[in-house]
Every structure is written in structure tokens, then in C-alpha cells.
Amino acid sequence: MKPMCGIVGYIGQKQAQNILLEGLRKLEYRGYDSAGIAVYNDGKLNVKKTKGPLSALQQLTDKDPLSGEMGIGHTRWATHGKPSDENSHPHMDEKQQFSIVHNGIIENYLDIKEELQEKGYTFASETDTEVIAHLLSELYDGDLVSTVQKAVKRMEGAYALAIANVMEPDKLVAVRLASPLIVGVGDGENFIASDIPAILEHTRDVYVLNDGEMAVLTQDRVELFTTDGTPVNRDMLHVTWDAATAEKDGYEHFMLKEIHEQPKAIRDTLAARLKEGVVDLSREISLTPEELKRFDKVHIVACGTAYHAGLIGKSVIESLVRIPVEVDIASEYRYRNPILTPSTLVIVISQSGETADTLAALREAKQAGARVLGITNVVGSSVAREADEVLMTWAGPEIAVASTKAYTSQLIAIYLLGLYLARVLGTQPEEQLLEVTEALPRLSEQVKSILEDHGSIRKFAEKIAQHENLFFIGRGLDYPVVLEGSLKLKEISYIHSEAYAAGELKHGTLALIEEGIPVIALATQQAVHDKMVSNIIEVKARGAHVLGLGLEGRTDLDRSVDEHITIPETLSLLTPVLSVIPLQLLAYYTSTARGINVDKPRNLAKSVTVE
Ligand code: F6R
Questions:
Q1: Which superkingdom does the taxonomy of this entry point to (predicted)?
Q2: What fold characterizes domain 256-447?
């Protein structure tokens, strides 16, 4: 899992503080639960850091500015340890000689921490990052570069690091493994950054570090090495993007960037929880098998897209765990006087963890004595703090109003939960669970392959952009997916659409099907495939123009629809992760074809903190 924090480093002749703060401001979209800087001056690395947005740090530095021409800065999206002043970066060793900022996860940090604790080191935070500062102090041999080389040999996991020390204040070191890092080359000044936008105002000439490489920066030089000391010759990259495009990694909108981040978000959400075909959540969920056995029903409560993930959660939990599940829209749940007992497990799903209706439902359920499990994407959010149990999605910050990567990560969290409960409660034969756990990690690559080939979706989007009404239909697990596809389309293209369980159309809505109306039909569920084809024929007979979305290798769908796109085959239970991708792209391209502000659609906000 890779947190999406931001790193900036500066060495030159100007005041570092303002350059670091400006750089961090450009990276705030990467994480915004805490921020900090360290600036070298007169034999000391002075640190200012605080929980909260960058503006909180700015208040500290406004009151008491840090002077100096070398420093590092960080904006954090918490993973290990809640957002707090202590857990904010930069971190330092006890002697206050090394200061570091870090993106990534040091997987073996507990081993290193224990070893250092035995040697008498004490730790001020809960982070994996702090161990690196102490490790550097322990290994220091008079040369920062060789000390860093020794330290990285001990570290497993992912890291992008910027490192300063007081013994060699003419130097900054950057080192990377599996977490992006670049070096910006200026005139009499050089920069480190996790992302190009942070430094674009100062230079467009950058070196992009590869895994296992480090850079040593002084005011006038940048040298690149591998972490075992071999010099690296790299061509400098001249960035031609404007700052706004750079923030989006070159994508035109955050939504498109986040759609493309899904393979990674899926991998990160699975990582460390699924090993050798076994799902283990015991480190995150404190409920004992005996306590889990006592639950006789599950309520899933959420809003919007998260509610759609909940609808899929119902099928997943009911089929794997065989416990009855009810799914509720949070704003309805509280007022329907739900039957809650200590043997009810209430699952709330919320990307932001701050949605007022979802929080109210969480509180109500707790008060009624139910146990609440929160699935959220934001460490330290209200849901994460108030739920009895928390299962994080590791999608990274989601900036676009329309949720995409958070949604697919919520689905992954639900599959993990279902598999874990099924194993602990023994509700399914091992072989059946194994089939699902083996198919899960393949989803990431399968999503990637859908993203690589979406020309026909784009063309279809351009056609529907001319319409004011359309339909989505699906059966079984395709039904919640079309609800999500329809919501996505409505919110960012302003086209009216209805999502229907395909078998329900003939009970009234079929009257609306007329010549030329677009119908998007999902047909990925084997068990109801033939029934779905009949429903498609029903709408086609009334003049609908049908886009069929089916599984690769099922040619019969091709014959019944006007246009046909496919997704790779997986277990029916897992198809929602794949089938939603073309629908997200459809919404995105329809929105851009209509010239709408995709990332900030009218009347909507990213976090809905009012009821
Ligand atoms: C739609 C969307 C919303 C959210 C809903 C809940 O694209 O993003 O429907 O899913 O407002 O938000 P969270 O998950 O933050 O509780």
C-alpha cells in the first residue's frame, strides 16, 4: 500500500521556508491531514509540524518563521498512526541530527524499532517513518551518503525519502523504492519533490529517480547513484506541462487520473491482508471468532456510491457468510426505527468518513448496542474514530467529486471481509473460498486491461452526449452496478438516466422506451444471462439503441445488441469491480463531450457534512 503524501526539499540561496510551503500547497491534493517542515539554520534543524491542513502549518510559520536556505517538507495522508502533531513529518532522531520526510510504508519497521529500542532508543511517534531517523543515527559513519546506503539495506517496503542532517548541511539526499520521487535542477539551487507540480514554479528540468536510486544534492550539483553506490547517468527531463496538468499526472481531470489509479488502489487495499490464498483481518478487526459467531444479522448503511457498494456487499456477505443482510440509505435508516440488538453487526461505508447521514446512523447504531464496523478511506476521520472496528480502503485521497477508486476499493474491502468472516465462521468449504481468493488479485490487471482499450466506450459516450434521457439495465449483481453507472452519468453529465432491474421494466417503465433511446445493458451474470438477453430483445423491439456490456468470449450477446463491449472473465461475484469501469469511463467521456466541469459538477460537494 502506498500512501499518497507529498514531499518537497530545497537547497540553495533563498529562504527555504517559503519554497517548501509553496511546494506543499501544490501537493495538498496528495494528502492533507497534517504537514510539516524542517529548515537548517546555524547547526540546527528546526521543525514546525502540525495536524490539520497546510493552513494550520502556515499559521505556525507566520507567527514564528524558520530562517535558513536548506530544508524539507511534507504533507501527509495518514497510514501508520492517526493524524496528529507527533505523527506528522518531518521526523527526527533523538539527537536531533537527522530529519526525514517519507512517503511509503516500511514493512519491517517493527523489527527495526524493536532492535533500536533494545539499544536504548526511544520513539516519539507511532509512525514507521520515525525508525528511519533513528536508524540513520545508529548507522552514521561520518558520511550521509554511505549511511543512507547502509540504512536502505535494512529497510523493506516502499519509500521515497528526503533526508537532511546537521553534520553535512551542504547536502540533501533523496532515495526511492516503489514510491515516486524527482529531483529538480535549478541555477544555484536544487529541489526534491514527490511530484512535479511542487517545483514547477522554480524549474522545469528534472531527473526522475528509478527504484533503488538515490540523489545527492548540493546547491550547485546533483549526483545520481544506485543505492549500492554505482553512478547513474540519466538524461534530464524537460517538463512542458502546465502546473494544472502536472497535478493530475498529465491527465486532463482528477476523475480520469483516479479512474486510472484503480489497479493500484485495488492492489493496495488487498496488500498485507491476502496472503497465500488466505484472508487475514485479525490485526485490524478485534472481534473474536466467538463474538463474530454471535451476529445474527448485518445492516449495511451508506450514501450514494458507497450505498451501491453496500448493495454488492449484501450479495457478497449473504453468499459467503450466509447471514441475512439489509442495506439502507443512511438518511433513511435513522428514521425507520431499525431493529438493532447487540447481535447486529452494522457496517457503515464512507469514503470521506465524514458524511453526516452516515455518521448519524453509526451513532444511532452504537447507542442501540449494535457493533459498528466502518469501511473508510480516511485515517483519523470521524467514521474511523467512532466505529468499533475499522477496515481501511487504501485508495489514497480522492479529489474528483465523482467517486471511482474509492468505490472499487470499497468493493475489495467487502470481499475481504466476506472471505474473512466465511473462514472464521466456517460457512463455506475451503476450496470455494480459495477460488475467490485466487481470482481477487487478478482484478487489478484486469481493470488495467479495460482501461487500456476503451475506444468504443468513448465513441458511445459521444453519441449519448446528444441525448437527454437513457436507461441502464441489469440483473443480479449487474443491477447495483447499473445503479452506480447511472448515478455517475447523472452527476457529471447532467443527463437524466434510470437504472432498472431488467426484469422490472415491463411493469411500467417499458412505456418510456421509444425509437432511438439509448439503453446500456449489463450482461455479465452467468446465472441470469439468458433472461437478460430476453430483456434486451424486449427493449430493442421497441426501438432502443442498445450498448451491451458482456464477458469476453460470450458471442451470443453480440448478436442481440447494436454495440458491444466486453470485460475480462472472472467469477460472477467479482464482476462488479470490472463492469463498473466502462461505466465510469462512459460518464467521464460523456461529461467532457458536453463540456462540463467533470471534477466539480454543479450543486455537489466532495464531502457532504450536512444532513
Ligand atoms: C458519487 C459520490 C457520492 C458519495 C456519497 C457518500 O460519485 O461520490 O454519492 O459516494 O456522498 O460519500 P462518502 O463515501 O464520503 O460517505
A1: Bacteria
A2: Rossmann fold (3.40.50)
Active site annotation includes 463 = no
Under CATH, to which class is 453-593 assigned?
A: alpha beta
Residue 506 annotated as catalytic: no
Nearest alpha carbon, ligand 1 atom 16: 350
Domains 6-247 and 256-447 agree in fold: no
Give 213 Cα–ligand 1 centroid separation in angstroms: 39
Answer for the pair 105, 75: CB distance below 8 angstroms, yes or no.
Answer: no
pTM score of the predicted model: 0.79
Cα–Cα distance for residue pair 82/86, rounded to 1 Å: 9
Cα 27 to Cα 247: distance, rounded to the nearest angstrom: 8
Q: Report angle CA 485, 487, 301 to the nearest 5 degrees.
A: 105
The mean pLDDT values, 10 residues at a time, for the chain of 611 residues are 74 97 86 89 96 92 97 86 87 96 91 96 92 97 96 94 97 92 96 91 92 96 96 88 77 95 95 92 94 97 98 98 98 94 97 92 96 91 93 91 97 98 96 96 98 92 96 98 98 97 94 95 96 96 96 86 96 98 98 94 74 63
Q: Say if strands 274-275 and 237-238 run parallel, antiparallel, or are unpaired.
A: unpaired
- 609 CA → ligand 1 middle, Å: 11
Q: Residue ranges per domain, the chain? A: 6-247, 256-447, 453-593
Indicate the helix (H) or strand (E) that contains 190: strand 190-193
Q: List pocket residues of ligand 1, CB cut-off 6 Å.
A: 303-306, 350-352, 355, 358, 402-403, 487, 491, 608
